[in-house]
Amino acid sequence: MEAEGGHGYRVAVVGDPVGPGGRLRRLGEDGTPVGAERPVPDLAAEVGRREAADAPRWVWASTDELYPGLPRVGRCHDVKLVESLLLGQEGRHGRPRSLGAAWARLHERPEPPDTAEPGAEDQPVLFAADRHHLPPDTDPLAALIAVHAAQLRRIAAGEHPDRMRLLAAAESAGALAAAEMGHDGLPWSAAAHDELLTGLLGPRPAGGARPAVLTELAARIQEALGQPVNPDSPAQVLPAFARLGVQLPSTRSHELRRIDHPAAALLLRYKELSRIHVAHGWAWRERWAPGGRFRPEYVAGGVVTGRWATRGGGALQIPRLLRGAVVADPGHRLVVADAGQLEPRVLAAMSRDTGLTRAAAAGDLYAALAKDAFDGDRGRAKIGLLAAMYGQTGGEAGQPLAVMRRSYPAALALLEAAARTGEAGGVVRSQLGRTSPAPSAGRLFDDSADSEDGATPDRRAARSWGRFTRNFVIQASAADWALAMLAALRRRLAEVGPEPRLVFFQHDEVIVHTPTPLAAEVAAAVTAAGEEARRLVFGATEVPFPLDTHAVRSYADAK
DNA sequence: AGCCTACGCGCC
DNA sequence: AAAGGGCGCGTAGGCT
Known about the structure:
Layout: E1 10-15, E2 22-27, E3 38-40, H1 43-54, E4 57-60, H2 63-66, E5 75-78, H3 79-89, H4 99-106, H5 125-128, H6 140-157, H7 161-184, E6 186-187, H8 190-201, H9 212-225, H10 234-243, H11 253-258, H12 262-280, H13 282-288, E7 293-294, E8 297-299, E9 309-311, E10 332-339, H14 342-351, H15 354-361, H16 365-373, H17 378-390, H18 398-407, H19 409-423, H20 457-496, E11 501-505, E12 509-515, H21 519-538, E13 547-552
Parallel strand pairs: 1-4, 4-5
Antiparallel strand pairs: 1-2, 2-3, 6-7, 8-9, 10-12, 10-13, 11-12
Helix pairs in contact: 3-6, 4-6, 7-20, 9-12, 12-13, 14-15, 14-19, 14-20, 15-16, 16-17, 17-18, 18-19, 19-20, 20-21
The structure holds a DNA duplex.
């Protein structure tokens, strides 16, 4: 992973509105064009040729739109994603939406309508051709070059240009990885999946019917409750329990686990199995994982904190019960790596809290905390730390939180400052400079009034937003590290060879699918990528960010 | 019928 | 006194 800039040159590229052609123009270090524009009849071929020869940094409006048709490249600058980062840096909280919107802002023109507006997809062909939403007299390549050059200037003008360069490069590399992973897919064994489903739900019912186990459980629940009830309906379940004298605040699992009634255990089992059937059952597989590959659509930059989102298939919530269905191809292994205790390590590195740093260096951070300050009680140490990062203060967290504040003052000060900023309506930033969204109008408030009872809606909203900004600095900085790690790993894997492929990424975890003989090399690349990310994102910190790495046949064997 | 919210649960 | 972050996705149940 390297920050944008450095060696090599850049090439701005746009695709023709129709057909396989496109236009390119070489750019200098500062983004100004060098030489003449080049129209080519086959953009994919031209990109492949230049990538092989010089591996420039490709500059385009949106990786989403252009990259799927192109051969694999090493580096890019995604103007739309970088625009979003820069709008945050500058305290302008518009959404980037399109090249046209960025171009309009640059030229202080009115912005085009939102791409996502209903009907935008059904525009007449004449206008649909311009997916960038530029005015008809504006050349897309020229607009791209202008917006990109301005972005390089805006990065340089920020408070921490090096960090923003790194973030821009990591965000863009992430977009490449997301497109590639969506294309390659996660190995998904229909046979292993079937075996797991059958073990839990019985044989697959014909015609998409409900498995008999669920029907039976529903009947037994009704029997135990003494009345007909739809187990999927909290509105029916709660009164049914109430009639039996069992008071429940909700039908959530943790509430059901607390009560002692036969119907509760049945309902818990029903919920677990029903969830598997509905969310990751046979119908799910036919829709999302046909032909031995699960292909979700990853949305890089889909979450304000920099985490990715996915569309379709719930890729970021593969139930642990079903991880046995993720199986390497014959002759291959899955190298599964996850960064343990990532968020507390991020907190230690950012705050430079000496006690927390020492605990992080000890290996099991929570155990070290317990030894330091919690009389050896690891459970309470974990509660205290999580409460501090999430903004919980009541219940069982109060006392451990007080211990945290006393023992790790610098760490708590960072979190509490972030919370105060949010409560006051301000924005906070991640380690690399990703900015939290501004509170929406409804969340702006006057918290000076009514401070006595402390529970006005405004005050509650303020505190809620404070919890968000408190968590934002940690979650977003963890995403900074994870993205930098992913980008470094992607580059290092390309050096190992063409076969090892990133096939999964989830917040603090990656899976690489590789021929078995290369598994050790891949594992080494993972370790090196984690170390590289630590150095680039956090500099001289002594906090380690270890990746726990396993080469396995099945995802289920990794933990 | 399609759209919306509430609720709940999966993952981190 | 109480106050727990971020998502996607499914059903229920009400609305237009």
